[in-house]
């Protein structure tokens, strides 16, 4: 350990355990300051629920540091100004951090690094947000695979680059500015009780234990939205209260279900690597011919979709779950996205931005990658002529209608044969259930057969 002091800039890595930036700093310096910058530009883009989650996790990090004799130095402002300013004020020799992959982060970090260079402060980045850092998983030709399966084959056999081991540096205890007031309760998901309902790393580790306990049936249950079948760890991975390597280690691959869950971490890496390689994915289709698609400017349809009023119960259940909780089951994310893009022929970017604003786990690379997958415009994407039928998806993955009944309660009295397409139910059955289509629940806003033909024509026109 040197006698110098260092600064760790926490961003989306709100943990002390299995955090290479924190480990490197505490092993290389005599004294370390932990810094978090509240960036108003990012807070303004997030839903109030996600702001609560973020600030609660930041407060939990401060509490964890206090157990080791330190405090989290909080500053509010533009990180491009604040980080160099604090580095200079504290007289540190290095700023340690974990990389991010978004275009915003890249521009911000370039500016901070240049400012640090001008005052002779070292910039020391790590890759604590991914299993493998970008550039380490390549084809034989030395490039990033545009298809996931070949990427995964290399990903799973590539040894992990070792991360630093934590040291015993002295921690500073200046709390700095007060965090913005946390308005609202810490958002938790189904099944998160006890310690698993707590903020920060402590809660995240408890949530990981719950996910690992049900991982054996992950491949069987993950597509049924009425079950607690997914890991529900995407929010912790987003804010970095868990490291992806810790998830892979705890879950393991001893069963098919566990292996299937770990495979999702490879998808996460792939989309992050892809965004680093092609930052224009945020705004432009990866397949350039699709830039010419004639999208419909259907504000009324977009609002119906956002508010869960499309007349298609499975779609509406998902959009209401998102609106009310900030989270949506993965299978339903695909169906709701397909409905917007393929059935309403609305630009995928409008949906992606809405999801990015509302989702607790909003991660730019994952969100953009998955929306482009559904739209058929991105790498290894779903074929453009694949249109998820919301009725068939509902009948297959919500067989008894339990998910619909929870989120679309006005249809709860319908039986399993009627709940997936209530407009097709006879008037006597609807009357007996106390439902009038168009009054208690909307009529379908679009005909599925017509909309399928319309989208195939729109995509076909640009392919020709």
Main pleated sheet: 6 strands, parallel
Intertermini distance: 64 Å
Q: What is the average per-residue confidence, as pLDDT, rounded to a whole number? A: 96
CATH architecture of the largest domain: Orthogonal Bundle
Helix content: 40-55%
Under the CATH scheme, which class of the largest domain? Mainly Alpha
Q: What best-fitting shape do the alpha-carbon axes yield? A: globular
Instruction: Note the beta-strand portion.
Output: 5-15%
The name of the CATH superfamily of the largest domain reads DNA Cyclobutane Dipyrimidine Photolyase, subunit A, domain 3
Any idea what the radius of gyration is? 24 Å
Q: Count of helices?
A: 20
User: What is the H/E order?
Assistant: EHEHHEHEHEHEHHHHHHHHHHHHHH
Structural class label = alpha/beta
**Which consecutive residue ranges, at least 5 long each, have pLDDT under 50?**
none
Number of strands: 6
User: Might you state the CATH topology name of the largest domain?
Assistant: DNA Cyclobutane Dipyrimidine Photolyase, subunit A, domain 3
Structural domain count? 3
């Amino acid at each position: 350990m040197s006698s110098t002091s260092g600064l760790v800039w926490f961003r989306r890595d709100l943990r002390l355990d299995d955090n290479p930036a924190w480990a490197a700093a505490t092993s290389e310096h005599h004294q370390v300051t932990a810094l978090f910058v509240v960036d108003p530009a990012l807070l303004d883009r997030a839903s109030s629920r996600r702001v609560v989650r973020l600030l609660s996790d930041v407060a939990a990090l401060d509490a964890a540091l206090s157990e080791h004799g330190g405090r989290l130095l909080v500053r509010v402002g533009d990180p491009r100004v604040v980080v160099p300013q604090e580095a200079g004020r504290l007289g540190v020799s290095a700023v340690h951090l974990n990389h991010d992959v978004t275009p915003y982060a890249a521009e911000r970090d370039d500016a901070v690094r240049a400012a640090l260079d001008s005052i002779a402060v070292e910039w020391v980045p790590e890759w604590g947000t991914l299993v493998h850092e970008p550039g380490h998983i390549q084809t034989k030709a030395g490039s990033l695979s545009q298809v996931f399966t070949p990427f995964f084959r290399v990903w799973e056999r590539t040894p992990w680059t070792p991360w630093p081991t934590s040291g015993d540096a002295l921690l500073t205890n200046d709390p700095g500015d007060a965090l913005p007031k946390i308005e609202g309760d810490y958002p938790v998901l189904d099944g998160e009780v006890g310690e698993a309902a707590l903020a920060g790393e402590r809660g995240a580790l408890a949530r990981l234990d719950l996910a690992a306990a049900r991982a054996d049936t992950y491949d069987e249950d993950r597509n049924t939205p009425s079950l607690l079948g997914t890991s529900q760890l995407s929010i912790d991975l987003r804010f970095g209260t868990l490291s992806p390597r810790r998830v892979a280690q705890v879950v393991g691959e001893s069963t098919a279900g566990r292996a299937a869950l770990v495979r999702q971490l490879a998808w996460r890496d792939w989309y992050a690597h892809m965004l680093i390689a092609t930052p224009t994915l945020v705004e432009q289709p990866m397949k350039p011919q699709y830039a010419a698609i004639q999208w419909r400017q259907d504000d009324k349809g977009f609002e119906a979709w956002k508010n869960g009023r499309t007349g298609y119960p499975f779609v509406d259940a998902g959009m209401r779950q998102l609106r009310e909780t900030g989270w949506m089951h993965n299978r339903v994310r695909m169906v709701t996205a397909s409905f917007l893009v393929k059935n309403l022929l609305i630009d995928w970017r409008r949906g992606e931005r809405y999801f990015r604003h509302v989702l607790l786990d909003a991660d730019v690379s994952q969100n953009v990658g998955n929306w482009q997958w559904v739209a058929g415009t991105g790498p290894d994407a779903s074929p453009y002529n694949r249109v998820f039928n919301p009725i068939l998806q509902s009948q297959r993955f919500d067989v008894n209608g339990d998910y619909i009944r929870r989120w679309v309660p006005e249809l709860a009295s319908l039986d399993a044969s009627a709940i997936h397409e209530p407009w097709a139910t006879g008037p006597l059955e609807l009357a007996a259930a106390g439902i009038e289509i168009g009054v208690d629940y909307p009529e379908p806003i679009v005909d599925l057969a017509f909309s399928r033909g319309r989208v195939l024509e729109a995509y076909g026109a640009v392919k020709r």
